[in-house]
Amino acid sequence: MTSSIAITSVTFILVGNMLITYNNIGVGWTAILTAIFGYILFFVGLSRLKTSLDEIGQNGVSKIIWATIIGIVALLMSYIPIAGGFLAGILTIIAFILQIVGLLKLKKSSSIGLIGANGVNYLLIAMVIMIMTGLFSIIPFVGGPIKSVFAFVAFLIIPFGWIKIQEGIIEKKD
After folding, report:
1. For residues 98 and 64, is the Cβ–Cβ distance under 8 A?
2. Count of structural domains within the chain
């Protein structure tokens, strides 16, 4: 894979990941549409990136792709009254676990190098923060604003992670 394809793949992933995270900051139908568009970009970027990684990296990205698919289903189910929200919560937990496992596998990939592995650390920190947003969202009255602040912090950390992964791939390819 050439460096330009690596750059565009990670750019798709970065933008998609940020749009997905925006759904936890914003509210309303525009945030939902933004998240759906983000999932699509994230999926396309991961699919393109997967072909350039070693077997360990491909295994990790496959898990992240599955987490993305489950995340889309969870997002759509969250708009079904009563039972949909409960099922969406369970699916979201499964997606988070899969994404963390996928990131840990990606971190071990020789295709992203040490710089990329450091980028995965940033993404893992953002994942922990997003888990905290889920916990804060269940607190009545004050949970929403606190959740938004934490989601915004994760939103700011995510680019650093994907840019480091991008740097690691480019360094390994050159």
Report:
1. yes
2. 1
